[in-house]
Amino acid sequence: MTALAPDPRGDTARAGLRTLRIETPSWAYGNSGTRFKVFAQAGVPRTVREKIDDAAVVHSLTGSAPSIALHIPWDRVDDYADLARYAEAAGVRLGTVNANVFQDDDYKLGSVTNPDPAVRRKALAHLLECVDVMDETGSRDLKLWFSDGTNYPGQDDIRDRQDRLAEALAAVYERLSGDQRLLLEYKLFEPAFYTMDVPDWGTSFAHCLELGERAKVCVDTGHHAPGTNIEFIVAFLLRAGKLGAFDFNSRFYADDDLMVGAADPFQLFRIMCEVDRGGGLDPATGVAFMLDQCHNVEQKIPGQIRSVCNVQEATAKALLVDREALRTAQRDGDVIAANDVLMDAYNTDVRPLVAELRVEQGLDPDPVGAYRRSGYQDRIARERVGGEQAGWGA
Ligand SMILES: [Mn+2]
């Protein structure tokens, strides 16, 4: 390789990428679809262990995805400590535990905000079970997303539902120990169409503030109204010390769960700029970067690899922003110059930089190509007989 001229911002970008960790979700590896059709793919995992195997492949090719998020009950096993050991042997660790209180018939009118106290007790018991799982897996984060809400004005008391939510969250928060954290995710609409009980970052933020230090907001990039300025939310939450995590994905219309950076790479860049500005790339701040996606028409493992690469590239561009020039332009009130600084970074082709870093880390410079050449896809398609029938829960 030829000697490069001194490049302090390139060095900063490489240093930032070396510590960037992106968690992949177990459900991205399984069959998924829309409410119209699940298109089964050959070779999808039949068990949690096979999902872990796939996550380990993504990590081995990207060097940046060392953990896999679990979804309970989809990934329920008898012995979580054993599962954690299996993951470690495969080269990854078990990450965030995602609770699921949205699939039982009992939850038709809500889970923790249901008007029926018996249903609320059942939902809370599941959330507490998830903390038990975390105790065994050593997971730090419990991610809570509630499908709770109403479809019609007058269906239930909006204010009472907030009280019920607060009560359940407090009980879960109380149960956390050590370095465990509660991440509260929000979503504008769907499945409820009139009110969601946690519709936006403000609602999540307010509940997290009331709970305490270890409750943080999870920003799912697909869960906003069209046109929402997500980077503003990121800047605000980081400043308040309340940004816990990202669920990365991209959307064209609503919660499309497409590959992050596919629909709007410029938005992803702007988000990563604010993450960097707020210090969120420092692992010590505890901001978790996760993918929350479904690969319905594309292959799943390369879909995850491509997504990790997209986050890396957006982060590299954000780290190339000449912060000093930006501050000077901002101080001088030079609007065009300030915008130029950001656009210069965004318009830089960072693929050579990222590829060079991979080679330095002993990785193939082209992870998707390396996956195609590995023969892994053919092998799992052959070996995982019956995987086509596996659903969310495998
Ligand atoms: Mn999510």
From TrEMBL:
Entry coiled-coil feature ranges: none
Superkingdom, natural source: Bacteria
Alphabetized UniProt keyword annotations: Carbohydrate metabolism, Isomerase, Manganese, Metal-binding
GO molecular function, a single term: xylose isomerase activity
Biological process annotations from GO: L-lyxose metabolic process; rhamnose catabolic process
Protein name: Xylose isomerase
Native source organism of the sequence: Umezawaea endophytica
